[in-house]
Amino acid sequence: MFSMEAKELVQKANSLEVKISVTNYNSLYATRSTPEFVINGAAVLQLKLIAALVNNVYNNLIFARFVKRRANDDLTYTIKLTSTELGIAKSFTSDDGTWHLIHENKKQQYTFDVTACMEAAPCASSFASLHDDAELTDFELRGEDGSVHVHRAVLAAASPVLRRMLGGAWRETAEGRVELPGTSRATLQHLKDYVYLHALPEAGLEQLLLLAAYYMMPDLEQRCVDRLARAVSADNACDVIEFAAKNKLPRLLLAVLELVQSGAVSVSAMRDHLAHAKTDS
Question: Distance (Å, rounded) from C-alpha 27 to C-alpha 154?
């Protein structure tokens, strides 16, 4: 008899943790797979174990596959798979469902941990070589404390809102610039970095998310939401919900509510935090 059990599953935004327990009761050959672990509704991670008993020696091969769920999804997903017990740290890009060998051992009974962290990114940008170009820039994004120079064609390719503005008889088109009140130059630079390089900043994601939603850039919006959701805890969940509701950001609001519903963020811990905050004030 051979058994493989997944337990202690914890999922939070673009990450998951799970324990896998394996026991082989003298089975000569067996194959077992875990359930498909869906990460953030976008991709599936699954583990498979092939075990064989040869000359009283247990041989175990552990495989992983990582596949995105929607074929017409323009994002590319990468995952970092780690395990303290197995001593592995491997990265995969979503593919056609190939099983990748991640570990082998000769144990009869063992338990191992798996932690998976997923990142999503659009396909490689063809505008990267223009990021530092100054000679051909023909448009200006003006913030409260400075401006960023960009290429009209690149902006038009990134956002349908900007495409309509740049292709019409708008004042901004004639003047070659657009004013963005309430937006800092740093946030505009983050927007340019994403449009040209698909790079995200470490800080300032909230303001970048507002621009992504306003200019109808769903890929950027989703990546900002994923990063922000990963940092949600009982201490800041209410603040994030308030920010999402105030600025009409349904993706972020739903991401936080899913964390609360799944138990990844405890309602009782949120209540305790609010009680302490009220007492301190």
Answer: 60
Query: Quick one: 105 and 156 in the same domain?
Result: no
Contact 139, 99 (CB under 8 A): no
CA–CA distance, 194 with 191 (Å, rounded to integer): 5
Mean pLDDT of the region 217-227: 88
What are 46-71's pLDDT values in tens digits? 999 999 989 999 999 999 999 988 87
Quick one: 270 and 188 in the same domain? Answer: no
Taken in order 158, 164, 165, 169, the sign of the CA dihedral is positive
* 154 and 258 inside one domain: no
What digits encode the pLDDT tens for the residues 256-275? 988 888 788 888 889 888 88
Take residue 110 and report the two structure tokens written for it: 């063992």
Query: Could you list the residue range(s) of the whole structural domain that residue 246 is in?
Result: 232-281
Q: Quickly list DSSP for the chain.
A: -EEEEEEEEEEETTEEEEEEEEEESS-SEEEEEPPPEEETTTEEEEEEEEEEEETTEEEEEEEEEEEES-TT--EEEEEEEEETTTTEEEEEE--S---EEEEEE--SEEEEEEEEEEEEEESPPTTGGGTT--SS--EEEEETTEEEEE-HHHHHHH-HHHHHHHTTT-HHHHHTEEE-TT--HHHHHHHHHHHHH----SS-HHHHHHHHHHTT-HHHHHHHHHHHHHT--TTTHHHHHHHHHHTT-HHHHHHHHHHHHHTSS-HHHHHHHHHHHHHH-
Domains identified in the chain, total number: 3
Across-strand partners of 8? none
Q: Kindly state whether residues 136 and 91 are assigned to the same domain.
A: no
Q: Are residues 200 and 258 in the same domain?
A: no
